[in-house]
């Protein structure tokens, strides 16, 4: 069952993701906070996944602001695509106000390709790091001095 659920989630995703754990601001369009203690867990060209103390309902229009590892601040409008509230296994009771009580996804709305360029650069940096790791694995075990 877990495998089928995982496969379904991958099929419903809109593109590839880059793991990214940074704090971010999620507000409604009128500027009021929508998700306290929010942090991003991964990001892609279509949206991002957020863990927070409280999650907004699906369909809620939001504005996000996240500082990427390149120190550039990425802002976008979007909507909550999905949301789930977690239960703590110790008591199976109500959420306790921690930053992992809710998990939800935000789909970006109306961004141009140039707006998404900072996120595309994250993919390029990840691909460069993977290529570097492959080169290092090939060199492992070989003498540096020929």
Secondary-structure blueprint:
Blueprint lengths: L1 H11 L4 E12 L10 E6 L2 E6 L8 E7 L5 E13 L16 E7 L8 H23 L7
Antiparallel strand pairs: 1-2, 1-4, 2-3, 3-6, 4-5, 5-6
Quick one: how many beta strands?
6
Strand content: 25-35%
Largest beta-sheet details: 6 strands, antiparallel, barrel
Spatial order of the strands in the main sheet? 1-2-3-6-5-4
Overall average residue pLDDT: 80
CATH class: Mainly Beta
Give the class from helix and strand content and strand pairing.
Answer: alpha+beta
Distance between the termini: 53 Å
CATH homologous superfamily title: predicted glycosyltransferase like domains
Characterize the structure shown.
The chain has a single domain (2-139), classed as predicted glycosyltransferase like domains (Thrombin, subunit H, Beta Barrel), CATH 2.40.10.220. It is built from 2 helices and 6 strands; from the N terminus they run H-E-E-E-E-E-E-H. It has helices at residues 2-12, 117-139, and strands at residues 17-28, 39-44, 47-52, 61-67, 73-85, 102-108. It has a 6-stranded antiparallel barrel with strand order 1-2-3-6-5-4. Strand 2 (39-44) and strand 3 (47-52) form a beta hairpin.
């Amino acid at each position: 069952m877990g495998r089928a659920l995982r496969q379904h989630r991958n099929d419903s995703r809109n593109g590839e993701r880059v793991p990214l754990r940074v704090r971010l601001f999620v507000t409604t369009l009128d500027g009021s906070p929508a998700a306290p203690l929010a942090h991003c867990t991964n990001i892609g060209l279509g949206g991002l996944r957020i863990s927070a103390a409280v999650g907004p309902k699906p369909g809620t229009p939001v504005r996000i602001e996240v500082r990427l590892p390149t120190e550039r601040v990425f802002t976008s409008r979007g909507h909550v695509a999905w949301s789930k509230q977690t239960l703590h296994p110790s008591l199976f009771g109500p959420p306790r106000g921690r930053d992992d009580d809710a998990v939800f996804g935000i789909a970006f709305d109306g961004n141009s390709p140039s707006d998404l360029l900072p996120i595309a650069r994250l993919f390029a940096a990840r691909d460069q790091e993977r290529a570097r790791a492959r080169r290092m694995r090939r060199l492992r075990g070989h003498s540096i001095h020929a």
